[in-house]
Amino acid sequence: MNDYVLYQLSPGDLDRFQHLMTMFGDAFGEPNTYTGARPGGDYVRRLLGSDTFIALAAVAGEEIVGGLAAYELPKFEQERSEIYIYDLAVAESHRRRGIATALIEKLAGIAVERGAWVIFVQADEGDEVPIALYSKLGERENVLHFDIAVK
Questions:
Q1: The domain that contains 107 carries what CATH number?
Q2: Can you count the helices (H) and strands (E) in the chain?
Q3: pLDDT digits (tens, 9 = 90+) for 65-87
Q4: What global pTM score does this model have?
Q5: Number of structural domains, the chain?
Q6: Measured distance CA(54)–CA(103) in Å, rounded
Q7: Is residue 145 part of a domain?
Q8: What is the residue range of 12's domain?
């Protein structure tokens, strides 16, 4: 039996979204990235209401214990889309309980509903825990990632 419930956040979930951001910052050890310049309520409502952003939260009691942020990317070469997992984290005190897998499985159900053909995610070299999880759930591709500065 799970001690958490999964939610897909909607425009009315501003408080839950803020707690999700705090959890991401704590889980990644980057609190300033996720809480230092929080977006305003109107921005968050638009984001959560958009057709291209998906936010999922695992909630135990009143606490956000895991979360996932993903984007649906409409493709141009065929009438289909892909889902990109941008962030996935579980609070340290709740790891190794299947929460990350459950979040990905919930996202997979959303992907089916939306007609997406694949979910993809990146992992950093040497980050063995997520690499093991993603290897269990999908096929590994070795690719290079480049950040191009916008001036």
A1: 3.40.630.30
A2: 5, 5
A3: 999 999 999 999 998 999 999 99
A4: 0.89
A5: 1
A6: 11
A7: no
A8: 5-137
